What does this fold into?
Amino acid sequence: MELPKFLLADNTDYPTAIFIVHTEYPRFVINLEDDEVEWLEEFSPEDEAELAEEAESLIEAATAFYDREVSRYDE
It folds into this structure.
């Protein structure tokens, strides 16, 4: 099965949270309500340096995905 790069997720235990799941490496879940990120990978020290550079653009892409999805509901 081919998964999309981003998925919207919700959970009734967190009624105000807006979760975006990034399904490609490095996999993570971000809660757009508070910008908390949970990484679903373990990183070596070398990976962490590279991740620091990439994380900001990945989070911006996740936010853009959410904005695009929400705008489609308004149409």
Remarks:
- The mean pLDDT is 92.
- Residues 26 and 47 are 10 Å apart (CA to CA).
